[in-house]
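Notebook p. 47: complex prediction with flavin-adenine dinucleotide.
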Amino acid sequence: MNEILILGGGASGMAAALRAAEHGTVTLLERQPRLGRKLLATGNGRCNLTNVGAAPENYHGASADFVKPALTAYPPTAVLDFFRSLGLRTVEEYGGRVYPASDHAGSVLDVLRLELERRGVRVLCGAGAEALRRDGRGFAVLCGGETYRAGRVIVACGGCAGGKLGGVTDGYRLLQALGHQRTALHPALVPLRCDSADPKALKGVRVTAKATVFRGDAPLQSETGDVLFTDTGLSGTAIFSLSRCAAVGGAGLSVSLDLFPEDAEDAIYEDLKQRRARFMARPANELLVGALHGRVGLILCRAAGLSGGATAETLTDAQLRRLARLAKDYRFPISGVGGFDAAQVTAGGMDTREFDPNTLQSRLVPDLYACGEVLDVDGDCGGYNLQWAWASGLLAGELR
Ligand SMILES: Cc1cc2nc3c(=O)[nH]c(=O)nc-3n(C[C@H](O)[C@H](O)[C@H](O)COP(=O)(O)OP(=O)(O)OC[C@H]3O[C@@H](n4cnc5c(N)ncnc54)[C@H](O)[C@@H]3O)c2cc1C
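Predicted complex, structure tokens below:
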């Protein structure tokens, strides 16, 4: 039977469908009313579609080597060639992150959608696979009262992160029904919850900082990048990168923000002394105006005990030293990490020992394949997860 069914029309499912179309008649079942809903939300709507530096070290899961064959067959250069062939123009930004030149995730989805159409892939939206079972030498998929039959099936249902964007546990359930095992699931690339009033007061403000997770005075992991203050704590790409460390690190952790990652504390202290001399008549809590985001400067001065009632000229060297120290080590106790709804990716998934890494075919059920986040693979923040989705989707779509 040359019928091929792809379950899931997200990043990996669309990539798999395009490659599989070279081998037979492809039907793509997507549970939501449209393809690629999560893809549209990636990279804050800009879609950080890959990272030119993606390497096996950027991936996590029970089996560290599992990603190697897919990344070797479809490294970021091959993924970019694939998208170029679909007509997508891309730009590389800091840290090797690649975005569509249009700055719009919709462009990535559009080129995939049009190519699916051009290749004659039958796309059925609002079609959630309810059950997957063996049917003679092939498979039967139950969906909305219909039964779809195929000789080969690729499960690309994603993980349960980003529930509001369609993250569900269907893929795990469908594969478990055919005898596959799942590892424990944890939210990853997720905001940190902090027991402090300051993040809430700064809600919505984004800064570039070096963020470090500490246990007591021992630094565990650092990341420099985007930090967003939220109602409940801290978010942003630098924080996402630390969230795995915070999730598994246990109790007694804190996160420290270095708001001037390029400058030593002494240099900041000297700058503050010059500001005191130059802006003598300014309210003391406006000393950092022009050096930091206005609200961050004000809150930091308050945290350092500088009152708006006094003028800058009244500040002592000890107060300036305290402010400089705080600017380099603005610390919040971590009370936990966000849940699956707030997470970008699921850590854990289908046990990769039960899939051949060279083909992504099941070792238990011939002609069954899986790709993307449904497998126990999660990547770092910065385009690595979509890189895995494309690479694994294209590899599974080879149907070897
Ligand atoms: C807010 C947010 C921002 C992100 N930003 C980035 C980023 O910039 N860069 C990056 O690399 N990664 C990013 N990620 C992670 C990335 O989006 C995922 O890792 C990637 O989409 C996984 O691809 P996938 O195909 O495995 O799953 P998905 O893209 O989630 O696709 C799975 C699809 O399967 C469908 N489905 C589920 N169950 C069924 C069923 N029973 N029948 C039929 N269809 C079904 C779902 O509706 C979904 O469309 C982000 C994630 C989120 C939540």
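Notes: Residues 105-118 form the longest helix (14 residues). The mean pLDDT is 95.
Next step: compare against the earlier run before touching the bench.
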